[in-house]
Amino acid sequence: MNLSTIRPLTPEDAAEFQRVRLAALREAPEAFGSRYEEESVDTIAQWRARLAPREGYVLLGAFVDGALAGVGGVARGHTMKQRHKAEIWGIYVVPAQRRGGLARQLTEALLARAARMTGVRHVLLSVGADNGAAHALYASLGFAEYGREPDAMLVGGRLLANILMIRPLAAR
Prior knowledge:
Layout: E1 3-8, H1 14-27, H2 36-39, H3 44-50, E2 57-64, E3 67-76, E4 85-93, H4 102-115, E5 122-128, H5 132-140, E6 144-155, E7 158-168
Parallel strand pairs: 4-5
Antiparallel strand pairs: 1-2, 2-3, 3-4, 5-7, 6-7
Helix pairs in contact: 1-3
């Protein structure tokens, strides 16, 4: 893998983000809360709006040889009572770039972004109970399981569980 950069996605990246995100929803519907059928009808203006800069929210893109190869987001809690935590979501790496450490680099970059958000003390995420590779990655990065959500999603007529994980950030 020849990683060129991990950086925040901008509205100018909307077409590439749309391509990768829709591929993710088609390939792994059990890994995401949205459905391909829902997001595939969105206009390019809606995709650009998702990438507009906002405080406490960022979508990162991992670019390999100039092409978007992975994405993931982190968002701080919205209310004053929840601004001490952030959630990582939507991590996906294109099949051709898997097993080369890109998901780890992307997750580490998301953790670093969360650590720079004012007041954030820990980071949460959820992962499909059947996604052993992602669970192992997150555990290796210091995430610990704190619960399970049975029947978290209904995909193709099947109810799927999620593992809930948490990772404290270093004391500041």
